[in-house]
């Protein structure tokens, strides 16, 4: 049997196959049917504005021969996208096979619904004769740019941002919980000045929080101004109408977007580049987090909670692999690749229009889908790890040489104050500690060998690797969320 003969069709992408349950919330906004549903919504709202007017002209019909729509007629029109389900998807697909044009197929689909209006509203409704009003003075991109902006806005605000914020919130809670838990730092993979686990997690809260602010403040631009952005057809048909005011009210008041007054045939997609750049940047911060947690697990700083019944290795029964973080890494890389391509290519269009953006934008769902999959993996992974306090304490106790920094810095202060015998502090500490295994007793002897005053010597001798954390616990309060 050929797999292509199986019905329903087998998914090619893992986002729609293996991982479908995790990425399915995006289907509501970024699938092809979701886009067509939004196109229908834009078309009918444009009809309603043209028929019932706008605030600046006293809510009078923009065009002659069109009576203001009744409440029932407006409700009927707005129900068309809401009822766009399995049958509607099939009907639209039938039209598209004929037209080879997805937006034209939407227009014909709406025409069908207008014909059927008499069944619901009775013979006096004017909707069947308003087919000409569908897509009036519009180019396909007028409908597409508004639909895509609304789809992306919905996906980001209702799916992606909550998933990302859940990770920030979990990290923030863990940062507070472990704000005073000392741990050994590693710079260049070598033991370095101790910190606290909470402070290190707070670094990620702060980094991610800044990106959340940028993404929440993102503008979503839209336009409805005709074939080359000049309102040429609009003015030819109805020169006395204030088409600029109509366009602005429709984009801002009806579509909930930011009006773009200056475009070619297409909305320039700069907002998309900004948004995808910000999400890609967030992905990279999350990638850094996934790698760090993976290495903390490997080092023993974090312990994993095994999932009952799960297999870590087909041959080594003892293993609990950090697969959630590995999966997150890979999916974040895929997401970044797509987002970076979208951000780079969408901002260019030959003269007033080419079609490269059309097929490119159909991958927005995949770009956000891989990121969402990574967010789900990261959240599950972070929920299943906890500090291994015994390993953390043992690591600190095995690296007394990290106290070389505070000792030589105190020596510098004493030298500057004019105390003799404190010259070349860095070199003295380096000779004692670099490349040697140092014990607490070695540190105390070195301090005793130097002409510190009694108070300073006592303060330095009271330092231990697990107490030398500076203001790390305080710094947790400075996160941006």
Features:
481 residues; mainly alpha; Fumarase C, Chain B, domain 1; Fumarase C, Chain A, domain 2; Ribonucleotide Reductase Protein R1, domain 1; two-stranded antiparallel ribbon; two-stranded parallel sheet; 21 helices; Fumarate_lyase_N; N6-(1,2-dicarboxyethyl)AMP AMP-lyase (fumarate-forming) activity; EC 4.3.2.2
Question: How would you sum up this structure, described in words?
Answer:
By secondary structure, the protein is mainly alpha-helical. It folds into three domains: 25-133, Fumarase/aspartase (N-terminal domain) (Fumarase C, Chain B, domain 1, Orthogonal Bundle); 140-310 and 319-392, Fumarase/aspartase (Central domain) (Fumarase C, Chain A, domain 2, Up-down Bundle); 400-464, Ribonucleotide Reductase Protein R1, domain 1. It has 21 helices and six strands. The protein has a two-stranded antiparallel ribbon with strand order 1-2. A hairpin with a 2-residue loop joins β1 and β2 (190-196). The longest helix has 38 residues, at 140-177. The protein is elongated and about 105 Å long. It starts with 19 loop residues before the first helix and ends in a 6-residue tail after the last helix. Residues 349-469 form the Adenylosuccinate lyase PurB C-terminal domain. It comes from Bifidobacterium mongoliense DSM 21395. Keywords: Lyase, Purine biosynthesis.
Secondary structure layout:
Layout: H1 20-23, H2 27-30, H3 32-52, H4 71-82, H5 86-99, H6 102-115, H7 117-121, H8 140-177, E1 182-187, E2 190-196, H9 197-216, E3 221-222, H10 232-237, H11 243-254, E4 258-259, H12 270-299, E5 302-304, H13 323-345, H14 356-361, H15 364-383, E6 385-387, H16 389-397, H17 404-416, H18 425-433, H19 440-448, H20 454-461, H21 472-475
Parallel strand pairs: 3-4
Antiparallel strand pairs: 1-2, 5-6
């Amino acid at each position: 049997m050929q797999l292509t003969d199986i019905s329903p069709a087998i998914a090619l992408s893992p986002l729609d196959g293996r991982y479908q349950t995790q990425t399915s919330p995006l289907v509501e906004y970024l699938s092809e049917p979701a886009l067509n549903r939004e196109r229908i919504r834009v078309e009918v709202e444009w009809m309603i504005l043209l028929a019932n007017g706008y605030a600046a002209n006293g809510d009078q019909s923009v065009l002659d021969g069109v009576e203001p729509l009744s409440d029932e007629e407006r409700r009927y029109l707005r129900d068309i996208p809401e009822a766009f389900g399995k049958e509607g998807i099939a009907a639209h697909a039938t039209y598209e096979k004929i037209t080879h044009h997805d937006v034209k197929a939407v227009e014909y689909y709406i025409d069908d619904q207008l014909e059927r209006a008499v069944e619901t509203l009775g013979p006096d409704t004017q909707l069947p004769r308003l087919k000409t009003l569908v897509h009036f003075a519009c180019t396909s991109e007028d409908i597409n740019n508004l639909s895509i902006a609304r789809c992306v806005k919905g996906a980001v605000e209702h799916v992606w941002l909550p998933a990302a914020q859940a990770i920030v919130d979990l990290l923030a809670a863990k940062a507070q919980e472990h704000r005073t838990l000392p741990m050994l730092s590693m710079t260049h993979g070598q033991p370095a000045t101790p910190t606290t686990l909470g402070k290190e997690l707070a670094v990620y809260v702060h980094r991610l929080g800044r990106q959340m602010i940028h993404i929440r403040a993102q503008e979503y631009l839209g336009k409805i101004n005709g074939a080359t952005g000049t309102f040429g057809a609009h003015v030819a048909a109805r020169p006395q109408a204030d088409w600029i005011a109509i366009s602005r009210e429709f984009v801002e008041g009806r579509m909930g977007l930011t009006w773009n007054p200056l475009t070619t045939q297409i909305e320039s997609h700069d907002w998309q580049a900004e948004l995808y750049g910000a999400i890609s940047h967030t992905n990279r911060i999350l990638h850094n987090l996934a790698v760090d947690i993976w290495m903390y697990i490997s080092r023993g700083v974090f312990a994993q909670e095994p999932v009952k019944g799960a297999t870590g290795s087909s041959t080594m029964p003892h293993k609990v692999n950090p697969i959630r973080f590995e999966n997150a890494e890979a999916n974040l890389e895929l997401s970044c690749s797509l987002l970076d391509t979208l951000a780079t290519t969408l901002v260019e269009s030959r003269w007033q229009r080419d079609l490269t953006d059309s097929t490119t934008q159909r991958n927005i769902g995949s770009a956000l889908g891989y990121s969402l999959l990574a967010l789900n993996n990261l959240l599950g992974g972070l929920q299943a790890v906890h500090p291994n306090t015994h390993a953390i304490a043992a690591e600190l106790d095995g690296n007394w040489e990290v106290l070389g920094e505070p000792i030589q810095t105190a020596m510098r202060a004493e030298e500057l104050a004019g105390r003799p015998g404190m010259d070349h502090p860095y070199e003295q500490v380096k000779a004692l500690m670099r490349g040697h295994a140092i014990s607490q007793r070695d540190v105390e002897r070195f301090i005793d060998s130097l002409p510190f005053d009694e108070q300073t010597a006592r303060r330095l001798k009271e330092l231990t690797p697990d107490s030398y954390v500076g203001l790390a616990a305080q710094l947790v309060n400075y996160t941006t969320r």
